[in-house]
Amino acid sequence: MHPVTVTLDVGALPPGPPPSVPWFADGTLRAGDRAVACAEHEFDDFRAAAVAGGVIVLTSPWAAAGVARDRLELVLLPSGGGRERFAAGAIEDFAVSADGALVAWAEHDWSSERVPGAGPVRSVFRVADAATGAPRYERREAGAAGAGVVRGLLADGRVLLDGGERGHLWDPAAGTVTRWADGSPAAVSADGALAVLTTWTDGAGDGAAVVDAPTGRPIRDLDPSDAVGRGAFSPDGRLLAVRRSARPATPPDRLVVTGARSGAPVLTVDGLRPGTVAWETAGRLVIEVWNDDRTRLGLVRCSVGGAAELIRPVGVAPAVPFLGGL
Question: What is the DSSP letter of 111?
Answer without folding.
Answer: -
